[in-house]
Automatic annotation (TrEMBL):
It comes from Chionis minor (Black-faced sheathbill). InterPro entries: Snf7_fam. GO terms for biological process: vacuolar transport. It comes from the Eukaryota. Belongs to the SNF7 family. This is CHM1B protein. It holds the Pfam family Snf7. The gene is Chmp1b.
Length: 185
């Protein structure tokens, strides 16, 4: 039981560390977006493209860290349930022994008090089980669109109020224009 509690602490610590790393990546993404705007303003499209690729990479990394954090949280919830179940099982064993002794004496007040305690133990277990199930159901996955770099470059140029003069490969012009239009909506 002590070992499981130690593992639980380590899992919760790991989840927090993953969340911190995700926030760092978010900050880096914002910094890269600012660099994109500066490069576009200076007319240096090659440097802007490099910063856009870095921003996309940081965004994807942030999402991956969050995804891992959610998975570690789910495992921590399961370990927490196991630790709690161990405690409840011990408590229930004590209650059952007390019930045996009380039933032999047939003291109705003691029997009622013990049954209340027994029901309370099960209510606690139900709440913790529900919490674990809620945590597991909240884990989600995200997908990344294809033309992210070009869309981000266009978005940064629009925010900076500049006209983006870059040639897109054939076949991508429509998707970038459509994506920008849907993003503006």
């Amino acid at each position: 039981l002590t070992c499981a509690a130690e593992h639980l602490f380590n899992l919760k610590f790991a989840a927090k560390e993953l969340n911190r790393n995700s926030k760092k990546c978010d900050k880096e993404e914002k910094a890269e977006k600012a660099k994109i705007k500066k490069a576009i303003q200076k007319g240096n499209m090659e440097v802007a493209r490099i910063h856009a690729e870095n921003a996309i990479r940081q965004k994807n990394q942030a999402i991956n860290f969050l995804r891992m954090s959610a998975r570690v949280d789910a495992v921590a919830a399961r370990v927490q349930t196991a630790v709690t179940m161990g405690k409840v099982t011990k408590s229930m064993a004590g209650v059952v022994k007390s019930m045996d002794a009380t039933l032999k004496s047939m003291n109705l007040e003691k029997i009622s008090a013990l049954m209340d305690k027994f029901e309370h133990q099960f209510e606690t277990l139900d709440v913790q089980t529900q919490q674990m199930e809620d945590t597991m159901s909240n884990t989600t996955t995200l997908t990344t669109p294809q033309n992210q770099v070009d869309m981000l470059l266009q978005e940064m140029a629009d925010e900076a109020g500049l006209d983006l003069n870059m040639e897109l490969p054939q076949g991508q012009t429509g998707s970038v224009g459509t994506s920008v239009a849907s993003a503006e909506q």
